[in-house]
Design the sequence.
């Protein structure tokens, strides 16, 4: 029944557009009553993104589960992984929806509002964690946008493969880009454990220091970074 | 006439919602004919974002005007500045629209699609410029999202001030966050010329090097950065 409703809805959205399709049209094509529709979906858009509210709730719960000591950027990336896992759990539905949203402008607009709510949720968490920084709100917004964009990049890559590629590899690579940029520690150690191309990631040392620091402090910093066993390159 | 149409449209969007308002409703409230509407606006959404197509065209033209030698991140930031300037040229209209989009969900959704097109345009340019990098497409998407997010942060700050704050200061600060993160050079020199808080910006040296580079090369890099007159801090 649920699948028949989804199939009917997708057919009509493609044919008439999202806004022009009513719930009556959908139940009529699926050959069921209106009440059956509402047993499965609270509203028309929930046929397309049935797990959106659950995904947001899970993300919020995960974000709030932090001790307050965790690296906020890494924690935000892990929250985004939950969403990608939700898509990956239903590959054929996700791929079908992806093809539909490319073709139906009204659905594309709805998808943007779905994405925006995830971004807003991440930004809210990051604003709390960055509250002590002068650039806190700006940093929170930009990092949240970067996490969402990296997530969407990984998701699209996986969807374009028809759900065939390894989504864990895709999301690891995308999130490593964000944590390498803003995470509290260079991410070499953890990434190697995640199985994500450690050669490429380990190849760079980044030193950030006050430019008024004496030169010996910077050299010490470099030596200490190079000596950190988490980052030693295994040739 | 144009202003009367905008006023009527804004009143109806607020009262009935964006989707529920027709062009007939708007012209009837404004007391003009349909033809007058289309003389000013190609479609209903253009009453709210009349300069969107022009803004996109300007951004695209600016992006394409690069020599191919320019710092791509900085060039993308400068393209985003054009959009903010377009808003800032009409402060009272921009502030009025901002208040409206907060209240009318259909308009908020339309605004997201406007923002998405800017982001898409920036990402397209950056993909071209990052084509030689293994992480090119991912980097392009994330940087484009960061530029748009920083732009929107500056825009919102200015709009919330009722268009009273100094938008140039807001956008300089937001874009400096992005160029400091990914720009080709630390941005101290240029930013000081822009009048953007040089104390904060000049305070950091970032060294990025192959971790297999000999220590003396890194020290040389630091010395050379510290000796760069563009970056010398004036106490």
Sequence:
């Amino acid at each position: 029944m649920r699948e028949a409703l989804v199939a009917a809805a997708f057919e009509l959205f493609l044919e008439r557009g999202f806004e022009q399709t009513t719930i009556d049209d959908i139940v009529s094509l699926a050959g069921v009553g209106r009440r059956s529709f509402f047993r499965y979906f609270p509203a028309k858009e929930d046929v397309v993104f049935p797990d959106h509210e659950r995904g947001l709730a899970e993300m919020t719960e995960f974000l709030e589960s932090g001790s307050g000591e965790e690296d906020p950027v890494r924690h935000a990336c892990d929250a985004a992984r939950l969403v990608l896992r939700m898509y990956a759990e239903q590959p054929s539905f996700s791929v079908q929806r992806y093809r539909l949203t490319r073709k139906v402008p009204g659905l594309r607009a709805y998808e943007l509002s779905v994405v925006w709510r995830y971004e807003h949720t991440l930004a809210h968490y990051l604003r709390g964690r960055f509250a002590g920084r002068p650039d806190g709100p700006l940093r929170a917004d930009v990092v949240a946008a970067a996490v969402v964009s990296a997530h969407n990049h990984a998701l699209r890559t996986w969807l374009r493969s028809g759900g065939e590629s390894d989504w864990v590899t895709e999301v690891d690579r995308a999130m490593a880009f964000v944590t390498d940029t803003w995470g509290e520690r260079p991410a070499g150690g953890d990434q190697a454990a995640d199985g994500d191309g450690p050669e490429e990631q380990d190849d760079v040392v980044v030193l950030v220091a006050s430019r008024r620091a004496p030169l010996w402090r910077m050299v010490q910093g470099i030596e200490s970074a190079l000596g950190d066993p988490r980052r030693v390159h295994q040739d």
In short: Confidence is low (pLDDT under 50) at residues 187-203, 228-235 of chain A. Chain A is about 70% helix and 5% strand. Strands of chain A lie at 204-210.
